[in-house]
Amino acid sequence: MTYIHEQPDWPRFTWDRAGLSVKLAAVRHRQGKLLGRMEGIGFDLRNEAMLRTLTSDVVKSSEIEGEMLDTGQVRSSIAKRLGLEIGGLVPSDRHVDGVVEMMLDATQKYDQTLDAERLFGWHAALFPTGRSGMTRISVGKWRNGPMEVVSGAYGRERIHFEAPEVARLNAEMARFLDWVDQVPDTDPVIYAAIAHLWFVTIHPFDDGNGRMARAITDMALARSEGSAQRFYSMSTQIRQERSAYYDMLENTQKGGLDITRWLLWFLDCLDRAFDGAEIILESVFRKARFWEKHGAANLNDRQRDMLNRLLDGFEGKLTTSKYAKIEKCSQDTAYRDILDLIDLGALKRDGARGRSTSYSLMAG
Length: 364
Known about the structure:
Elements: H1 17-39, H2 43-64, H3 71-82, H4 94-108, H5 116-126, E1 131-132, E2 135-136, E3 148-151, E4 158-162, H6 169-180, H7 188-202, H8 209-225, H9 234-240, H10 242-253, H11 260-294, H12 301-311, H13 320-327, H14 331-344, E5 347-349, E6 359-361
Antiparallel strand pairs: 1-2, 3-4, 5-6
Helix pairs in contact: 1-11, 2-3, 2-9, 2-11, 3-4, 4-5, 4-8, 6-7, 7-8, 7-11, 9-11, 13-14
């Protein structure tokens, strides 16, 4: 098997520029339209949309690698670092903070040089204990051993890809980092797609390569817009299409230097990420309309916190016992709070009764 990085002309990528031109123009139009729309809304709504986008980006990028982060911790960590005032802040552990710091460094400092020391800092932030799970890894430096991407049970492993050998890493990363900080000689979105593929191909670290590749992609997309504000998430969309994402990467690694298919997939995925941005924006508007209607009501802190949790996408059904546990009050107090919110027209009782009674937000 000859991998893409073993091709004689590596890394001189080629693609069908004419064949991609229509798709690229359409994606760039949607990108500009979304940014223009966000500029037209209020400061608070824009910050809420960005906070939701960044939270989803961090959570979903980790999910792609099979790691589940606490959404509340991620949201709180991002809000603290961006100086955003939100209710319901919770303490975040150092691992969550590290992932958030990496992503914010990539997007908020998108115009700064990406060099080896910066990447080493990202890697150290991802693995603050020096371990990936139970395994000790080399942190803040290039890997010192071979790298294979495999799946399947022990004894029946399937090798998807073999990265360049260790002896090539210094030269490969020097060439990649030199290219990253040049003024792109192609469209910046195409540049973002190439950066993702190129970094994943080198796979320079013991672990965390996928998350760092997606952070580099976010940095490149921010550069394409000249803005640190993020209102769509490639990682969230890739999470929904994880199987296709891995298949496309594997096929590209085993192909030649014509990466047209990878670029087309990337553009299509980005286009679908804009659909996700529209969903987030509608949710933000819904929250704003809700508080325009109920903001003047005489609500206690527990009620306001729970309503915001519901508006932000509370998982599962809200019950009296859940309310009591989250808001740290008795079930009698929780029940009275809920009845008040029903009388206000903010909550409604769902179909089931008795102990299984649940509640949800009123529409509109």
